[in-house]
Design goal:
With 510 residues, this protein is mainly α. The protein contains 19 helices and no strands. Helix 2 packs parallel to helix 5 and helix 10 crosses helix 14. The longest helix has 53 residues.
């Protein structure tokens, strides 16, 4: 049976790499922003937005193949799983050149020289990033988390390094060239370090049609999810000048670093969960684990949001005052650490081969996109500017999270006692409310919490201390309600104590 300890063990190394990479990227982003300014950063952000959208417009062979390979492997059908893998990569890889040419043709629609060159370079970036994606997909299906962490280390350290070098040598052009070198080097690493994948070109149209039938809805979900998730940036790009885009991209870049840690955990969980569902054929036996994971993630992301809000304004005001307009939208967007991570777990389960609720997930994303666009249009018409875009983004993410859990509710709590449902939803809703309360204290609690360029260190320490104290008390209550009766989480705690050299108690932390 899958357990929290197993997932944490698989994700910890990947997360450690991303923490290190995020630490490097944090300082690199500061240095790059100081060098190129908000307008160039906005142009680079726009090109990266096109790259993201191009990566979503795929036929879905690999997405469906990934899901089916894990399910087949869990069911012990290794030969069929290999066949599905080869068909998926054969058909989707053959269409790669179409996306590359489409991206490069985007240069015809811009007059700004940096954007024209950027779209041409985006074609090369997309090609090499796709090869890396194919390699990573294979390693995920094989549960090679250590190898994925090593590949991530190459990517996460080389990327900021090349970006920093490019920014100082060539400005915006260097920033646009850096991802090509990063992706090419990561692909070389996988080709040298990864065991043979058993891939051969396999043209099986019967199998390909099955993958296409299930893959297109998965692709549509991804398009709608990322279209919804990046709709705030798209609206800033469409309705605001490049300088405002630079402020928004700068702020959101730090939020994305935090979200990467959640993605690491859930990527490992997805691999093991999809295989486990292939064995059990039912979701209900996994419900206690899944609800604990949801509360765990909510608590950690709430802490992350408040710590980010505590530190961002003092640090920006002291070291990067030209990006001061990014502080207000950042403080609001920090709540997306909670709201963007909340639907990941139910979405993973709903789109599994067991539940197969892709169409309803698509509907949810469409509704979320409509709410976000309407809210953003309304708030910007009221003169809220970038803050209105951020508020609309958070509200729409809350709306989508609620709908995902409503859709999963029947399968997750089938035959469960009412107390189990009430307990979960009470905790899951109260943690974000607590995070909002802490934020309001930071904003309006005392003049001593307000930092200036000259007086920033004292307020910064006080803000962090308030967040730490508040969440220490909240986490104690979470532990009493959720951790204390969890043997799996107790095992994790016992392991951590053993590594720290602390002798375990007779109770074993269970």
């Amino acid at each position: 049976m899958i357990g929290v300890r197993q997932v944490l063990k698989g994700s910890s190394l990947i997360s450690a790499v991303n923490v290190l990479g995020g630490f490097v990227a944090f300082f690199a982003n500061f240095a790059i922003a100081r060098k190129v300014g908000p307008q160039v950063l906005g142009a680079v952000g726009l090109v990266n937005l096109w790259l993201l959208y191009a990566g979503l417009l795929r036929p879905g062979f690999v997405a469906a193949g990934f899901r089916d390979v894990l399910h087949l492997t869990g069911a012990g059908q290794e030969a069929k799983a290999l066949h599905v893998q080869n068909v998926a990569f054969t058909y989707e890889g053959s269409l790669l050149i179409v996306s590359v040419l489409a991206l490069m043709s985007g240069s015809l629609f811009y007059q700004e020289p940096l954007l024209k060159v950027g779209m041409l370079l985006a074609g090369g970036t997309f090609f090499f990033q796709s090869l890396v994606r194919y390699q990573e997909t294979i390693q995920w299906t094989k549960h090679r988390f250590g190898l994925i962490a090593q590949g991530g280390l190459v990517n996460r350290l080389l990327g900021p390094g090349l970006s920093l070098l490019g920014a100082y040598k060539l400005g915006g052009l260097g920033l646009l060239m850096a991802p090509i070198g990063t992706a090419a080097a990561t692909n070389v690493f996988y080709r040298l370090a990864a065991p043979p994948a058993g891939f051969t070109f396999t043209w099986d149209w019967t199998q390909a049609k099955k993958l296409l039938h299930s893959g297109l809805p998965l692709t549509l979900i991804a398009v709608l999810y990322w279209g919804f998730r990046t709709s705030d940036r798209s609206m800033v790009a469409a309705w605001f000048p490049l300088e405002a885009m630079g402020y928004f991209v700068f702020a959101m870049g730090f939020i994305d670093m935090g979200l990467q840690l959640c993605s690491d955990f859930y990527n490992v969980l997805q691999v093991q969960l999809l295989s486990e569902l292939g064995k059990t054929g039912s979701l209900r036996p996994l419900a206690p684990l899944l609800t604990r994971l949801a509360v765990l993630t909510a608590a950690l992301t709430c802490i992350g949001a408040n710590l980010a809000q505590a530190g961002f304004a003092p640090i920006i005001g002291r070291f990067l005052p030209k990006f001061q307009p990014s502080v207000v939208p950042f403080d609001v967007l920090a709540f997306n650490l909670v709201c963007l991570s909340a639907p990941i777990l139910p979405s993973t389960v709903l789109t599994s081969a067991l539940l197969n609720r892709q169409k309803m997930c698509c509907v949810i994303q469409v509704l979320g996109l409509v709410v976000n666009v309407a809210g953003c249009a309304l708030m910007t018409s009221w003169g809220w500017g970038l803050e209105g875009v951020a508020v609309s983004s958070v509200i729409s993410q809350i709306f989508v999270s609620i709908l995902h859990y409503r859709l999963l509710h029947g399968a997750l709590f089938a035959g469960a006692a009412p107390r189990e449902k009430i307990r979960f939803y009470s905790w899951f809703a109260s943690l974000p409310v607590a995070s909002l309360a802490v934020y309001l204290v930071l904003q309006h609690g005392s003049p001593a919490l307000l930092a200036t360029r000259e007086d920033w260190l004292g307020p910064l320490c006080l803000r962090v201390a308030i967040v730490s104290a508040a969440w220490s008390a909240i986490l104690f209550q979470v532990y009493r309600s959720w951790w204390a009766d969890s043997t799996a989480l107790g095992d994790v705690w016992t392991t951590l104590k053993a590594k720290a050299g602390v002798r375990a108690s007779p109770a074993g932390g269970s």
